[in-house]
Structure formats: C-alpha cells, structure tokens
Write a structure and sequence with these properties.
By secondary structure, the chain is mainly alpha-helical. It has two domains: 144 residues, no CATH class; 123 residues, Serine Threonine Protein Phosphatase 5, Tetratricopeptide repeat (Alpha Horseshoe). The chain is 73% helix and 0% strand. The radius of gyration is 21 Å and the shape is globular. The termini are far apart.
C-alpha cells in the first residue's frame, strides 16, 4: 500500500476518534459549565444579598442540577447528528482528514442545529440558557455571569490549565477537550472564582478578596478576554472602595474602561 494512502487512512481514523471523544465529552462539558455558572450566581448573592430569599439557597443548586442535564442532552443530540451527517461509513475521507477538521465540522453542525432543536424539544438553546442565568442574577441582585458563547474567539490562544479548576469542573477530563470547550470551562472557572471573591469581600476579608480578584485578572488574561479582564478590574475597584482606598478604585476603574475601549478599537 502506498505510504500516502496509509497516512490518509490513519488521519481519517484520528479524525473519527476525535469526533467520538466529543460525543462523550461535550454533554458533560455543557452540564458542568451550566451548573458552574448558576452556582456562581448563587455564590455571588450569598449571605449578604438583600434580594436573595433564604429558600433560594436551597432551591438554587437543585435548579442547577435540573437545567444542566437538559442543556447537556441537547448538546449531545446535536453532536451525534454531526457524527451521522459528516462521518457515515465510506465518507470519512471526504473531509479533511485531521482532528482539527473534525472538530470544525462537528461544531458547525452543533451551531446550525441548536436553535431548531430547542424549538422542537422545548429544551434551552445556548441563548435561552444565557438569558435564564441573566434573569436569575437579576432576581438575586448580582451581575449576570459571563456568557462563554458570546466571549469565545477561535484565535484566543492556547487554553492550558494554569490554575486548578474549582468545584465539579475539576472532574472534567482536560486533554480530550477542544479549544472551544476548554475556553467554556475556563470561563466557568473564572465565574466561580469571582463569586468566591465577592463572598470574601462581603464578609470583610478585603485582603483575601483582592488576591482572588487578582487571580481572576490572570485567568482572564490567559483567555485573552477583554470583557473578563475589565470585569476583574471592576471587582478590584469595588474591593478598593470597600477597604476605603478610593484612589486605588479610581485606577482600577480607569483600567477597566481602557480595556473595553481597546476591545472596541481592535474589534476583539
């Protein structure tokens, strides 16, 4: 057998294997990211929010556990549709035979099918999930959690684990995840850590809160997300105000404004 045929066959097998990995991992990613973002909303409200009802501390985690699997089921169905559409027996070699091409093809099908699938099944799309989390945050009197879908950029650099993943996110297998899935997980991790910082701030532990928010800055810079960098600076500004350092707060607010202006100018 000519070597180029053998090489092409091997690449096709690698691509198919990559898709099978996504079928296994994506539903879990969808569930854990959704639950982490909802946990971040509840954590940011915490003991010190005037709007949060005591029962919400009990109902909130249960709600997360019910919504997360619905999103996961929808994602899994779309990935399987992508597998059936793009990788039927005899057609695997018709696409570019590489793991990156497999990821791109499957993600395209996922994006195209999510809205229609949500209409057909009554399950939430990414957009409706983000809206639901935003409404929950408003009910609790806290800022909405970041929307990973809106923040994601394919050119945002390598996604590596520079910091431990908090909570249940730590149980996710990291190496099989695509660039996009890693970004989603890192955004959810950022949100959980921000919620930790807010809890520390509201309990009067200004030093620890500052350390957590500085960590959030580093996490956001790793993701090259101007919005999360700016939001982390705003958290540091709030910490400075609470600790009586208005001069530092002014510096952090200016840094946040500069980051957003740079984003608007560069089109990031």
């Amino acid at each position: 057998m000519p070597s180029w045929i053998a090489a092409a066959g091997q690449r096709a097998q690698q691509a198919a294997h990559g898709v099978r990995q996504r079928v296994t991992v994506d539903p879990e990613v969808a569930e854990q990211v959704t639950m982490a973002l909802m946990t971040a909303v509840i954590g940011a409200a915490g003991e010190h929010s005037a709007k949060i009802h005591p029962m919400a501390k009990i109902v909130g985690p249960a709600l997360a556990k019910s919504v997360g699997p619905m999103v996961a089921a929808s994602t899994a169905r779309q990935v399987r549709k992508g597998l059936e559409k793009g990788y039927r027996p005899g057609t695997a070699g018709q696409a570019e035979a590489s793991g990156e091409a497999a990821d791109a093809d499957v993600e395209k099908v996922v994006e195209e099918g999510t809205e229609a699938d949500a209409e057909n099944t009554g399950e939430p799309s990414d957009a409706s999930t983000a809206h639901m989390l935003s409404e929950l945050a408003d009910d609790f009197g806290v800022r909405p959690p970041p929307d990973p879908e809106a923040l994601y950029r394919p050119d945002s650099g390598p996604m590596e684990l520079l910091f431990p993943l908090p909570g249940d996110l730590a149980a996710l297998p990291w190496s099989p995840l695509s660039h996009r899935d890693r970004f989603f997980v890192l955004v959810a991790a950022w949100a959980l850590r921000e919620a930790d910082g807010i809890q520390l701030l509201r309990s009067g532990d200004f030093g620890q809160a500052s350390e957590v928010f500085q960590e959030c800055v580093a996490r956001a810079k790793q993701m090259q997300s101007a919005e999360l960098i700016a939001r982390s600076y705003e958290d540091l500004a709030e910490q400075a105000v609470e600790s009586g350092n208005e001069a530092a707060a002014k510096v952090w607010r200016a840094a946040a404004e500069h980051e957003r202006q740079e984003e608007a100018t560069d089109g990031r």
